[in-house]
User: Which sequence fits this backbone?
């Protein structure tokens, strides 16, 4: 079966660091994506991991451990505009398909 | 702006009706994906087309169908609509199908079934 788990909600303070965890159990694995989605808007791409380790991209970093079925998204120097939903998604199936299985998303609220 | 366009933005219809949602991918993108997002289900993959051919299928209902045309735009047809079909429907596109494959999402069509 397919199961992607993320915390439902998190709260953090402006300027702080927050880590959003994602665990997955899927029938196949061809990469893990993180997307940001503001309420009522389209998801926008943040990061992609296919090998174990840390990928850094400005204030955002994402980590993957394939053996543990685990990823996290790290957001540094939080800004009010970072208040949004963060979606973890696994690309499963054969390597020539783009089917993404999404978690329910983590709603992050950044407070002043 | 991702470069993916979807029409209409909002659609209100009645149970039992049929609607068509339209998506134009980013210039040069060959893959089109359809997703459904409802409050209780999150973002659910429906179907993927690559260069006119179906490439992957999710838990798409039999009442739903899609196609990708030679100019690469895609349409999602929803028939015999039920209240539970009310949701945001997103289209996404990507240059190819495999490998590193960032998907760019359109603004979505909000469907309300009354």
Assistant:
């Amino acid at each position: 079966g397919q199961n992607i788990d993320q915390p439902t909600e998190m709260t953090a303070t402006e300027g702080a660091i927050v880590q959003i965890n994602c665990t997955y159990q899927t029938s196949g694995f061809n990469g893990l994506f993180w997307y940001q989605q503001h309420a009522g808007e389209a998801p926008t791409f943040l990061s992609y991991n296919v090998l174990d380790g840390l990928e850094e991209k400005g204030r955002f970093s994402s980590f993957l451990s394939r053996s543990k079925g685990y990823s996290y998204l790290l957001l540094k120097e939080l800004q009010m505009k970072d208040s949004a939903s963060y979606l973890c998604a696994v690309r499963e199936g054969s390597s020539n398909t783009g089917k993404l299985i999404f978690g329910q998303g983590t709603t992050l609220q950044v407070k002043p | 702006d991702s470069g993916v366009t979807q029409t209409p933005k909002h659609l209100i219809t009645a149970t039992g009706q049929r609607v068509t949602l339209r998506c134009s991918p980013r210039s040069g993108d060959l893959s089109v994906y359809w997703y459904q997002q409802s409050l209780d289900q999150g973002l659910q993959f429906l179907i993927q087309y690559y260069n006119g051919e179906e490439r992957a299928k999710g838990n798409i209902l039999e009442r739903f169908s899609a196609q990708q045309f030679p100019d690469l735009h895609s349409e999602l047809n929803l028939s015999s609509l039920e209240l539970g079909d009310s949701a945001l429907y997103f289209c996404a596109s990507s240059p190819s199908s495999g490998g590193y494959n960032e998907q760019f999402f359109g603004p979505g069509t909000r469907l309300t079934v009354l």
